[in-house]
Structure formats: C-alpha cells, structure tokens
Amino acid sequence: MATVIAVANQKGGVGKTTTTANLGAALALRGRRVLLVDLDPQGNLTSAFGLEKDVQQTVAESLLDRRVPLPVVSVANGSAGGRENVQKLSVVPASVGLASAEAQLMNKLGRELRLRDQLMSVDEQYDYVMIDSGSPGHLAEQDGSAPQGGAPGGRIPAAALGGACVRD
Q1: How far is residue 114's CA from residue 45's CA, in Å, rounded to a whole number?
Q2: Most buried of 64, 89, 120, 141 (most Cβ within 10 A)?
Q3: Among 130, 93, 165, residue whose Cα is nearest residue 2
Q4: Domain 3-158: which topology?
Q5: Both ends of the chain: CA-CA distance in Å?
Q6: Domain-by-domain residue ranges, the chain?
Q7: Between the CA of residue 143 and those of 5, 98, 101, 118, what are the distances in Å?
Q8: pLDDT 10s digits, 77-118
C-alpha cells in the first residue's frame, strides 16, 4: 500500500510543484516506486517532466469517466550510481482541460471519491503517491484522497491509503 503525500498550500507560487517534483525524483533515485499526480490545471508538474506535448490523455478524463484508467506515464529520472531508475518514477499528467473537468464534476454525486478510487486501482504498484494539489479549491482538497482530519506528525487521508500532507 502506497504512502500518499499531498503537497498543499493556500497560497500560489510557494513551491508546491517544485517540492512535489524534487521529492518524488529523490525518492525514485533511492529506489522507491513513485507516482506523481498533477492536479493543477496549469500542468506545471507535467511540464517539469517534459510531457506537455506528448500526453494523449490526462487525469481529467479519468475523473470524468470512472471507466477510464489513470494515464500513468513513466519518465526518465537520471541515474544513481550508474543505475538507471527509469521505471521508478511515473506521472499522471494534467492540462488546462482539468479546469473544465472540475466544473463538470461540481454537481456530480461522489465527485469527492473519484480520485481516491482511481488511485486505489494503482496503489499496489507504488511505494509513494505524491499529489501536486494546485491552487486552493481544486480537486485534491475536495476529494477523499486528499489529506483531511488531523494526526500527530501529519494529516491522514480519508481514503485510508495512508499518507501525510506536506505544507510548504
């Protein structure tokens, strides 16, 4: 079962995407299997790994239609000690279409569970799932997989995937 970490802050421009990308890459270089989920319609985490023009499908389609699996894209992550860790780091890309998807989901029953359900389908394949939550009010804060409630040393997600919330 993966540890879920949502990087969140009420302010924009404070380094949420940079923190998510760098922490995820560092964990992958240490041999951990890491899934980075871009939930920001600006798609900066997606762009950070050079995926903006190569992506055929984004997280938006998976949230709108539960039958569509998460579009997981493996990315190269350099090497550590001469060993390639290409398969250790994956990204679920986002694009501006995510803003439209969020609007479409606004009145849907169970919208807050869609990301949780999608993550549960790939949970066993990763040691860490890191969510770049984007701006306040976006899906990560409304979804059941986002950290909610309190616990010493972190915030545990209602989705019970086990995780923490990193606030930068």
Answers
A1: 21
A2: 89
A3: 130
A4: Rossmann fold (3.40.50)
A5: 25
A6: 3-158
A7: 14, 14, 14, 11
A8: 655 555 554 468 999 988 887 877 777 888 877 777 888 999
